[in-house]
């Protein structure tokens, strides 16, 4: 029943996909509602947090009772937060928007589906990389943790010097 429904929904499904094993989770769209609910809940909390932080920092900056260094650190922190939010939007809302539009338009594109799942799957590594790039204390902690682990495992540190490698000019005849 589910295969027949899928073949009706996607009439242009290539034969190489039809010939292979197909796993159909559900034929109704209510299965993805918990995912959508959690994404909207997370996004709502994140955007509320960002709005409150931004508003609070702007109000304290207007009072002029902060040093220039503190204002600079606050601007740097806000830029880091904004980059994390943009990454969240790209990694979570872009796939959700594509899925929503493709369902409404009855559009099927296997390459698009694969790309969307890859983008969603890379959210964890992308968030980690943004944290390492944007927050110096986090970056230093991770570096020190890796350094201590390397020392504990007694790995040799590669020594990089300014000396040019010596080249032998011996020619064998």
Automatic annotation (TrEMBL):
Record PANTHER family: SERPENTINE RECEPTOR, CLASS H-RELATED
Any single Pfam family the record assigns to this protein: 7TM_GPCR_Srh
Lineage per the UniProt record: Eukaryota, Metazoa, Ecdysozoa, Nematoda, Chromadorea
InterPro entries: 7TM_GPCR_serpentine_rcpt_Srh
Transmembrane portions of the chain: 35-53, 85-108, 114-134
The protein, known as: 7TM GPCR serpentine receptor class x (Srx) domain-containing protein
UniProt KW Lipoprotein keyword: no
Species this chain originates from: Caenorhabditis nigoni
Name of the coding gene: Cnig_chr_V.g17254
Keywords: Membrane, Transmembrane, Transmembrane helix
């Amino acid at each position: 029943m589910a295969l027949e429904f899928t073949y009706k929904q996607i009439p242009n499904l290539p034969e190489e996909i039809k010939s292979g094993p197909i796993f159909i989770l559900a034929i109704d769209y209510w299965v993805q509602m918990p995912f959508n609910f959690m994404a909207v809940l997370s996004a709502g909390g994140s955007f509320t947090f960002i709005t409150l932080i931004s508003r609070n920092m702007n109000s304290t900056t207007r009072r002029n009772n902060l040093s220039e260094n503190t204002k600079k650190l606050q601007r740097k922190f806000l830029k880091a937060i904004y980059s994390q939010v943009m990454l969240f939007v790209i990694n979570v809302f872009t796939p959700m928007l594509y899925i929503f539009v493709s369902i409404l338009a009855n559009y099927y594109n296997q390459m698009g589906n694969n790309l969307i799942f890859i983008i969603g799957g890379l959210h964890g590594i992308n968030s980690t990389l943004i944290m390492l790039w944007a927050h110096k204390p986090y970056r230093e902690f991770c570096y020190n943790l890796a350094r201590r682990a390397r020392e504990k495992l007694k790995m040799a540190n590669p020594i990089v010097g300014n000396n040019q490698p010596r080249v032998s000019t011996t020619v064998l005849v």
